[in-house]
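Schema walkthrough. Field components (list of strings):
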Amino acid sequence: MSKPITPLLPISYSKEVAAAKLSGAAIVALESTIITHGMPYPGNIEMARSVEAIIRQEGAVPATIAVIHGKLHIGLEPEELEALAKTTDAMKVSRADLAFAVAERRTGATTVAATMIAAAHAGVRVFATGGIGGVHRGAEQSFDISADLEELARTGVIVVCAGAKAILDIPKTLEVLETRGVPVVTFGSTEFPAFWSRSSGLPSPLSLNTPAAIANFQATREELGIDGGMLVANPVPEADEIPREEMETYIARALDSAKREEIAGKAVTPYLLSTIFELTEGRSLKTNIALVESNARLAAKIAVALASS
Ligand code: PSU
Ligand code: MN
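Field assembly_structure (string):
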C-alpha cells in the first residue's frame, strides 16, 4: 500500500476562534493581504487591531487569516498580528498559491479569494474587507481579472466590502459578477459604491437595508441549493468620503506609472494601492481605514444574525 502523500493539514485556530467554534458564536473572517500588501506600517496594524476590536464590540469573534511558516492560521494572537504587519517579504497568496505556501512552509498573506477558501474550510460564513479585486481597466488587452471574482462564484462566504476601487473597470467588474451568478447587494443604497466614494454612478443590482435581511437572503440561497458567495457593498461613511472626481486624477497618474514601469500579474494591485497612498499623502489611507472599520461592523452584525437564525 502506498503511503498517503498529504500529511494532516497544518492548521491553527486562535484561542478565541477555537472557543467561538465550540460555543457556536458568530465569527467574522478578515484577510491579511490588506495588511502586508494593501497598507503601509504602522497604519496597517492600527487598522487590523481596530477592526478586530469593532467585531468584538458587536458580539462576534474576529478571525484574521494568514499562512505563517506553512501553517494556516484561522485567527491570529496579538503578537502574531503585529509580526505579520511588520513582515516585508510575505507572499501574496490567492487560490493559485495558498496550498503552495502551506506545502513549502512559507509565510503568505491571503487575498479575498484565499481568505474565502480558508474561511469556508473553517466553517466561517462572513468576511469583512476593504475592496475586492476585479476586472482591471484595459483587461481586454491585459486579461487581468482578479481570482476574487471566480472565488465569489464558487465559495459560499458573504464578503462585505466598500465596493470596487476605480483603479478597476467597475462596469466590467459588475458584468463578470452577474455572468458568474454572484449576487451584489448594496447596504442601504440603490447605487453601487466606489470604495473612497459613496457612488460609482452605477445602480446596484440588489439592495437591502438590514443585516438580518442579508442573513436571510443568504440562508434562502443555501436552502435552494445555490452555492457560491455573495458580495455585500457598504458605502464608505459620508464623513470619510473622497469625491470621485478628485480620486480620478490620482488613479490616472498611478495607472500611467504602472504602465511605464511594466508592472504585471499579482504586483499590479499592490503597486497601484501604494502609489495612490503616496500621491494623496496618506489621505486615502485614512479613508481606507474608516471604510474597513465600517465594513467590519456590518459584517459582525450579519454574522450575529446568521448565528441566531
Ligand atoms: N483592493 C483594495 N485593497 C486591497 C486589495 C484589493 O482596495 O488590499 C487586495 C485584496 O487582498 C484583494 C487583492 O483580494 O488585493 C486582489 O489582488 P489581485 O487584483 O491581484 O487579484
Ligand atoms: Mn490581477
